[in-house]
Design brief:
single chain; about 325 residues; three-stranded mixed sheet; 12 strands
Length: about 325
Amino acid sequence: MKVVCVTGASGFIASWLVKLLLARGYTVHATVRSLDDPKKTGHLQALDGAKERLSLFKADLIEEGSFDCAFNGCVCVFHTASPVMFTVDDPHAQLIDPAVKGTLNVLKSAAKVPTLKRVVLTSSMSAVMFGVDIPQSSVVDETWFSNPLVCEQKKMWYFVSKTLAEEAAVKYSKENGLDLVAINPGFVIGPILQPTLNLTSEGFMNFVKTGKEVFRDGIYRLVDVRDVANAHILAFENPEAKGRYLMVGNMVRSSVIMKIIEKLSPSLGFSQKYKETNCPDSVPFSISRARAESLGVEFTPLEVTIKDTVESLIY
């Protein structure tokens, strides 16, 4: 049985990744910041196969060598751990250092493991398409990169952290002979496994309950959490996988989401909201799914994702 490690295993994407890995017969090492917090570990230990094939390890992103024990004997490291926040007092201490230095600490530990075949990095669309001009009708693909200087000027600190972390990971991996593949998800929704709300789920729940937009332009780059987790596994299992893979199943305006929610859950009262909206259904550009689909990803239909999300968060 192959042994793999998932960093930040209590998170939204990571919890699903652990679940799917166990379902596929992997032995999983999972790192968390605290082994004493049942909110971080209980849902993982309750997964099918966890009793036999899941081991929990304490690890801290900013502590070099912290991941050595967890990575020992692994053939793949799935590095999902990174802080997610959009309002910060100290962007370097709260976001940039844990993201960049934390990623480098993970890679330094990975480089010590002779059995390791690949590192799969959870990056973000935040590292792809921000701080740059996107012409009308463009198709954004894996060749696009965010401009961290522009993002910094605009105080878009999360976008800075994800961009710099991916850049640092690619540079270190090339210099040290690590096989690195990056997964770049958009706005991740879907049913949650962890007992506490993550940031994207909380934002989407507020939108569903109140109609308050998550994004000012009303455009959502949505992807199902189960598709993102599956993409990570495919990125390891496919020996031809390389570079980065954008994971956006659907790029839609809020009016489209409102119509779907009204169809699925009329009791939430979205009918009047989407009738009153002046926002068109069309979007000004698109995001390529070609490389993700070449990896074997089959994107979950949007209505299924929204239905499962609403049922998980609201009911």
